[in-house]
Amino acid sequence: AQTVTQSQPEMSVQEAETVTLSCTYDTSESDYYLFWYKQPPSRQMILVIRQEAYKQQNATENRFSVNFQKAAKSFSLKISDSQLGDAAMYFCAYRSAGGTSYGKLTFGQGTILTVHP
Amino acid sequence: DTAVSQTPKYLVTQMGNDKSIKCEQNLGHDTMYWYKQDSKKFLKIMFSYNNKELIINETVPNRFSPKSPDKAHLNLHINSLELGDSAVYFCASSRPGVLWPQHFGDGTRLSIL
After folding, report:
1. Does residue A37 surpass a pLDDT of 70?
2. pLDDT of residue B2
3. Secondary structure of B41-89 in HEC code, one letter for each residue
4. Count of CB atoms within 10 A of residue A36's CB?
5. What is the pLDDT of residues A73-85, one digit of tens each?
6. Under an 8 A CB cutoff, do A43 and B92 touch?
7. A-chain residues near B96 (CB < 8 A)
8. Is A36 on the interface with B (CB under 8 A)?
9. Buried b (16+ CB within 10 A) or exposed e, B40-66
10. B66 with B76: CB under 8 angstroms?
């Protein structure tokens, strides 16, 4: 079974600065997808960014980018120019590309991000 | 237009009661999921349906029974509610195939008194 670990229960950053959230995962599969989801206090689950394991290029979405290290099984999220609206809980998630998992997401424990003005 | 909608958003009830949570998606997706987020915010898959057929059932007590009348709806019925069932329940949907991301509803907070 796959596991996802987020070792930072809480992180904080000053507005306009950069912060990196860590995620590691354990799998024996070679093909899979990785995601970062944001959950603000409103409870919504919002997709931030995704990475296909077969792609070497790191995904970017505006101020959000990832550092995907397949050999190290590491998938960190970098938030540049942090904004107050970035304050939320962030979840790293794994999704097998194999048919038997039927696309279910396996989540990490989450990291609470606080943004200070 | 809400893509994945759950009702109710909040549900407060007593131990031993039976309750249902409804989920509807208007995205035309074939696959729908139920996740449970516990008091420590940990999210875990419970069930998944693909085109009305159950495809994932993760060691969930028999008191939980999902029902999918059509591919746009996936309801969750819970019998004999227990204190440990208090959680936020999320419905999600996606296109078939693992490439596509899952779209989540806003969650239903279930509180057992």
Report:
1. yes
2. 67
3. CCEEEEEEEECCEEEEECCCCCCEEEEEEECCEEEEEECCCCHHHCEEE
4. 26
5. 999 999 999 999 9
6. no
7. 103
8. no
9. eeebbbbbbbbeeeebbeeebeeebeb
10. yes
The mean predicted confidence, pLDDT, of chain A is 94
Per the model's pLDDT, the better-predicted residue between A56 and A70 turns out to be A70
Chain A contact for B83, CB < 8 A?
A: no
For residue A95, the chain B residues in CB contact (below 8 A) are 98
B-chain CB neighbours of A97 within 8 Å are 98
Residue numbers in chain B where pLDDT is lower than 50: none
Answer positive or negative: Cα dihedral of A71, A10, B104, B42. positive
Q: How confident is the model at residue A38 (pLDDT cuts 50, 70, 90)?
A: very high
